[in-house]
Amino acid sequence: MQRSSPTILWFRKDLRLSDNHALSAAVARGGPVIQVFILEPEDGGTGPMGSAQRWWLHHSLSALSKDLETRGSRLILRRGDAQKVLEALVKETGAEALHWNRRYEPVGMDIDGPLKQHFRDAGLTVESFGGQLLHEPTRLKTTGGTPFRVYTPFWKAVDAGGDPTAPIDAPKAIAAPDRWPDSEALDDWALLPTKPDWAGGFREMWTPGEAGAHQRLKHFISKGLRGYRRGRDFPAEPHVSMLSPHIALGEISPAQIWHATIGLPASVAAEDYVHFRKELVWRDFSYHLLFHFPELPRRNWNARFDDFPWRDNKTGLRAWQKGRTGYPIVDAAMRQLWQHGYMHNRLRMITASFLIKDLMVDWRDGEAWFADTLVDADPASNAASWQWVAGSGADAAPFFRIFNPITQGEKFDPEGTFVRRYLPELAKLPNEFIHKPFEAPEQVLRKAGVVLGETYPQPIVDHRKARETALSAYQEISAGAKSGVRE
Ligand SMILES: Cc1cc2nc3c(=O)[nH]c(=O)nc-3n(C[C@H](O)[C@H](O)[C@H](O)COP(=O)(O)OP(=O)(O)OC[C@H]3O[C@@H](n4cnc5c(N)ncnc54)[C@H](O)[C@@H]3O)c2cc1C
After folding, report:
1. Is the pTM for the entire model greater than 0.90?
2. Separation between Cα atoms, residue 249 and residue 253, nearest integer Å
């Protein structure tokens, strides 16, 4: 039976039409579907969306809007408190149902729970759906019935559970209401940078939107996945998917990505696609942690770190942010972040270690910079990963594992290809000194056109000394009274 009352479909960080369970169920309900995206004062994550991701959001909403138009539908844009916006829409459209896909950030969940009850009390059918993660954070439990704290058993539980639910296709058509409610204009939201327009490098690199996400997945499966396990550590090699910003705004679901790794030709080694799945599962694990420890972005998981003597090192923080530390692998990585809004995983670990351990700056300052500058900024993965590097997190790298920025560079960028790409001022240095220009003899520097302290900075710290200082600070807190993991 055809229903005539509309369903409101509330888009959040799930900006796609395929494998969108809330949307497909809204269409299946019969009657018109009114899609709305609400720019909330808090973006449902841990704070307002960062500048880089706002750029992405603009283009993603624009792509989604066009995709809906090809199905005879529309995207309505509204700004403000979600409950008020939805109340107004219900009133304007006579909608009797409200659908969304679940989100798992603490701020978002605090909004959604009461909101669901509110509209149910008002007589609406309110339904929420999964699909943003491979598995709901409450589904997987240790044999003791508690949340996981360690990744490997979490992965084993995921793996033992078999493949996630197969993705569903986008609806072919979406019924429109007789009269559309008003929409705000995307340009009025001023999500794009203007003065100055720093997004030139983003435009070169990315195609936000569902079609762009699937193109990238296809390209990665055919060109990057073979050799992923080894190659994913080498930033100059094309062995990472760069799907993270598409995943962060839900232009593609993790189930779609997982299923794209099933039934591949025998030339793709199991070690490569299984390792890729394991990385996807790190994202689920990060959400699992955030769900069960909502303070993850703010508080040390391990309370012992509350006493860590962080430094108020504004000069160091600024040099790190600008890619002017004097350590080429760190600086090239920070400039990749600035130019493209993305940083390779190996380099995220190196730069985070440098900030925390060489400069002794609180991991929360690094997390905040990444949240503002990454197009893939994600409240769970960002916080969990910073705590992982700091050693304060669940299943974290031990604090004493301090990356040496010279040997890391030499190991993972042996020819200096990556460094030369982002630091053209060092491009003419021979491989021997590309990761340590400060050790190059004067005539080598002159020949390469490098003047340390002028064309490229001197190191802002001596890594060996900084390492010792960090280790003794760690010994102090290890000997201190506080210990252990928060419950
Ligand atoms: C300090 C630090 C901060 C980070 N901040 C973020 C962040 O804000 N947003 C974010 O998405 N990732 C973050 N990561 C995790 C990881 O670096 C990125 O997910 C990855 O580099 C994205 O590139 P890719 O899509 O090419 O990865 P691929 O190697 O192609 O991996 C595929 C997907 O798996 C997931 N994934 C891979 N590695 C991890 C990981 N270690 N943790 C969680 N998920 C993972 C991502 O969704 C990724 O897109 C951070 C890591 C560190 C060390």
Report:
1. yes
2. 9
